[in-house]
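Give me structure tokens for this 367-residue protein.
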Amino acid sequence: MWLNRFIDDISNWDAEPPFMCISLDLRPGPGGRPSAPNALRAAWANEGQEDLEKYRTFGDTIELTGELVDEAMRDDTEGIFLVASAQAPTEPRIMSLPIACRNDMRVVDRPWLFELERTAYFAARPVVTVFTDREDTDMMRVIFGERESGDQVEHATHALQKLHGRTDAESMVGTPTSFGGGHAWNKIENIVDEHRNAAARESAEAVVDLVQENDILVISGPVKSRSNLVNHLPEGLSVVLREDEGGFGTERERRAYSADLACRVQTEAADQLASSVLAGDYGELVARGREPMDMMFTEGRVARFVVHEDAVTHWGDHMDARLIEGQHDNWLGEALWKARETSAEVLFGQHPPVLHDHQGGIATLRW
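Here you go.
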């Protein structure tokens, strides 16, 4: 997808170091305005004090970033990445995002991949949201925070809609207790049920056509409509039921919901793998911490690399844009390059022992 292509582009950029790498969360903060500009100024003041000469090269980049942030906040943008080289500090490579990233700014000898890889990992899991009621079934597949595809199935409401507790068709023949109407009422009720089942089958077929392997499927809507749809889905298809009959809100709210759910599921996947590794489920095919990991990367043996997301320094998010100091920036920054060069899968999680006991990174090995 586009974010992975941007990472590839940055990774293959043939430019002279150093590089200024910026990521900003443009979502509104507690005061209703994004806190990213304040985070950027604070990071500039804090980092610049350590190496004034190096940072002075990118003064124009910071000014340009401020202008880009103002422009991005007027669009449907929640995050922005910017990478500039010392050769052309006012000609950065930029990626605007419909999803959020964390605040970060640093000047480094190689492009800083951590925030890019972290955001790509959390956003890469596709989510299909389905809202169904008696009128229609609406579907949307979201990946990397954007609508990738969708579908809508309209139902024949004249045969499904209840009027005063009965369908239109039922109202024509009275109630079961009316004189001579019981047999006709039962017949019409069966017809109505068949219409409802037919509508559910059609919707289920559309859902199955849309959902791909590894997608997260979420179904919302009135209980009866939701249950009827689920009952017509193939066995083995995993479904998350959303207990909200009102649907997913606007398209932007729906995309935000999907991105947030994908992030939570991806975090859980990384934490489950980390827990399994530390529990001994992988035997000796593991590496923990900097020195063992460096050796395994050199030998090309790393299969899956689990990184704790707070093992490196950053400046928080839209709700709390303060300095969060990490202890493992140098080795994890290089480790992500090694993972890319050896085609190792990278996962980002929050399992505490990974951070506190293993310098922020553990891995499963190929052999």
